[in-house]
C-alpha cells in the first residue's frame, strides 16, 4: 500500500510497474496528483506552481521517468538568477559577485572574508555560526542573515549546519578577489545552472504523466485517517478498511505518527519536536509582454515580504494565456510558529513589495489581470539541531512495524527533498522491500 501520489508515491508505483509487481494500490487524499509539485490553472488562464521548482536531476532513473512522462515535451533553460540588494541586482551566487555592491559594503564584506582565514566551519555549532565562519560576518550581515531569516522563518542558531553541502555555494577567497579586481561576474556554480521545464501544464505535468503509468492502481480523494498498526490495516475517510503487508507513506511524518492506533505516546512526543515552515505562493499575472529574461530572484531586503520571485512566464510560454502579451511573476513568502504572517495581506503586500523592489512600477500595477494565492501548510522541513535524533527514534520504530515513511516530509530531510530525490526514495524503498537492495539516497540517516 502506498499513501500519497506525489513524487515519492509515484516513484514507488513506477518501480513496482517496472518490476511487473501486480498487487499494489496508491491512495491520494486530493483529486489531483503531484503533492507539493502539483500545478494549477486559474480562471484567467495563468498556470501556477506551488513555489519555484527548478528541475535538475542527480539520477538517470529520474531522467527516464521525466522523459517518458512528458513524452519529450519540455524546454531547457540556462539559469539567470539574481539577488536584489541595495537598489541593484547582483548575480547569483551572491558571494561570488560582491564586486557589484556599493564600495563601502564591498570593503566590509572583503575584510570579513579575510577574517575567516584559519577558521574551520566544521567546528560551527549551528547554521548561523557556519554561515559566519564560511562567508564572513559582512556577507552574513548584509545578505545571508536577512535572506535566510525570510526563508526559514526560524531562528538560524536552532538550525543544524549539516544539510548545506549542495544547497549553499561555498566561497573561494582567491576567486572572490579575482572577480572584484577584474569586475567580473561569476554565475556558473551549482547543480541547477541548467534546468528543464514542462512545455505545458507546469511542473505538475510531470506527475500527471507519471500517474498515467499507474492509473489502474491509483485511487484519488481517499484520505488515510487511521493506521491499525498491530493489525496491519488502514482506515480511510470513507470508513473503508484496507489491509497491507507494507505501508509506504509520504504524508508528513508528524501527521503519520498522530494517526497510529493505538497511539504511541513516546513517538507522539518526539514528533512534536519536528519543525516546519509554511509558505504562501502569490501569483501575479500582467497584461503586457515580459520585460525581462531573468529566471528567479532573491530578496533579502525588508521592504518586501517575499524571499524569492520567479518570472514564471519565462519557464514556458504556455504558463500564460497569451505569451506575446502576458507575463507572470510568482512570489514566495514563509511563515511559521516563530514568525506569523497575516495571510489576508499577502497579495496586496506582494504587489507593494514588487513596486518597492522595482520589479514593477505603479503603471504596471494597473495592468494586473490575475492574482492567485496558494497557502501551503508544509513547505520546508526544518533541519533543526535535534532532527536526526528524533528521526533516529521514530523511523526505526515505524519500520519495525512495516510502515515506511519517505519523501520531503515523510523523511523530514530538506537536503534530499527535491523531486528527483523523492522519486528515488520511493523507487529504492521498493527495491529494498522486494529484493533487499540497499537504499542509497537516504544514506544521510541510518534507519535500520
In words, what does this structure look like?
It is a single chain. The chain has helices at 7-18, 60-70, 103-115, 127-152, 173-181, 204-211, 253-258, 265-271, 346-356, 362-365, 387-400, 419-435, and strands at 2-3, 26-27, 39-41, 47-49, 74-78, 81-85, 88-91, 194-198, 218-219, 224-228, 233-236, 241-243, 247-249, 260-261, 276-286, 296-298, 308-311, 327-335, 368-381, 403-405. The chain is an alpha/beta fold and 448 residues long. Among the domains are: 2-38 and 203-272 and 384-435, 3-Layer(bba) Sandwich (FAD/NAD(P)-binding domain); 81-181, no CATH class. The strands form five sheets. A seven-stranded mixed β-sheet has the order 7-6-16-17-18-15-19. Helix 2 (60-70) crosses helix 6 (204-211) and helix 3 (103-115) packs antiparallel against helix 4 (127-152). 46% of the residues are buried.
Amino acid at each position: 500500500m502506498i499513501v500519497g501520489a506525489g513524487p515519492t508515491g509515484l516513484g514507488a508505483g513506477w518501480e513496482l510497474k517496472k518490476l511487473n509487481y501486480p498487487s499494489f494500490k496508491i491512495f491520494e487524499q486530493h483529486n489531483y496528483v503531484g503533492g507539493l509539485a502539483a500545478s494549477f490553472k486559474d480562471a484567467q488562464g495563468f498556470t501556477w506552481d506551488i513555489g519555484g521548482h527548478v528541475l535538475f536531476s542527480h539520477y538517470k532513473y529520474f531522467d527516464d521517468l521525466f522523459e517518458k512522462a512528458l513524452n519529450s515535451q519540455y524546454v531547457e533553460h540556462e539559469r539567470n538568477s539574481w539577488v536584489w540588494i541595495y537598489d541593484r541586482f547582483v548575480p547569483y551566487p551572491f558571494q561570488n559577485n560582491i564586486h557589484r555592491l556599493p564600495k563601502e559594503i564591498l570593503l566590509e564584506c572583503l575584510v570579513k572574508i579575510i577574517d575567516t582565514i584559519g577558521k574551520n566551519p566544521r567546528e560551527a555549532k549551528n547554521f548561523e555560526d557556519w554561515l559566519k565562519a564560511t562567508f564572513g560576518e559582512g556577507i552574513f550581515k548584509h545578505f545571508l542573515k536577512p535572506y535566510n531569516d525570510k526563508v526559514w522563518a526560524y531562528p538560524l542558531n536552532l538550525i543544524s549546519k549539516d544539510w548545506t553541502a549542495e544547497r549553499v555555494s561555498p566561497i573561494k577567497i582567491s576567486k572572490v578577489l579575482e572577480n572584484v579586481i577584474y569586475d567580473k561576474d561569476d554565475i556558473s556554480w551549482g547543480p541547477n545552472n541548467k534546468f528543464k521545464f514542462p512545455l505545458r501544464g507546469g511542473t505538475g505535468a510531470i506527475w500527471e504523466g507519471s500517474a498515467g503509468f499507474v492509473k489502474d492502481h491509483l485511487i484519488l480523494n481517499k484520505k488515510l485517517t487511521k493506521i491499525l498498526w498491530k493489525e496491519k490495516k488502514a482506515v480511510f475517510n470513507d470508513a473503508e478498511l484496507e489491509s497491507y503487508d507494507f505501508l509506504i507513506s509520504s504524508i508528513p511524518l508528524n501527521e503519520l505518527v498522530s494517526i497510529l492506533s493505538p497511539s504511541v505516546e513516546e513517538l507522539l512526543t518526539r514528533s512534536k519536536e519536528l519543525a516546519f515552515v509554511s509558505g504562501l505562493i502569490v501569483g501575479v499575472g500582467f497584461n503586457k509582454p515580459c520585460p525581462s529574461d531573468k529566471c528567479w530572484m532573491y530578496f533579502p531586503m525588508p521592504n518586501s515580504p517575499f524571499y524569492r520571485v520567479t518570472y514564471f512566464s519565462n519557464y514556458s510560454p504556455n504558463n500564460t494565456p497569451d505569451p506575446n502579451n502576458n507575463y507572470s511573476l510568482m512570489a514566495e513568502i514563509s511563515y511559521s510558529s516563530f514568525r506569523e504572517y497575516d495571510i489576508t495581506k499577502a497579495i496586496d503586500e506582494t504587489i507593494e513589495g514588487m513596486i518597492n523592489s522595482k520589479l514593477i512600477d505603479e503603471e504596471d500595477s494597473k495592468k494586473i489581470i490575475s492574482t492567485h494565492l496558494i497557502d501551503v501548510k508544509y513547505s520546508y522541513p526544518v533541519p533543526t539541531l535535534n532532527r536526526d535524533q528524533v528521526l533516529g527514534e521514530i523511523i526505526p520504530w515505524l519500520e519495525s512495524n512495516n510502515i515506511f515513511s519517505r519523501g520531503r516530509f515523510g523523511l523530514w530531510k530538506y537536503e534530499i527533498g527535491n523531486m528527483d530525490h523523492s522519486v528515488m526514495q520511493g523507487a529504492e524503498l521498493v527495491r529494498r522491500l522486494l529484493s533487499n537492495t540497499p537504499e542509497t539516497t537516504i544514506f544521510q540517516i541510518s534507519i535500520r
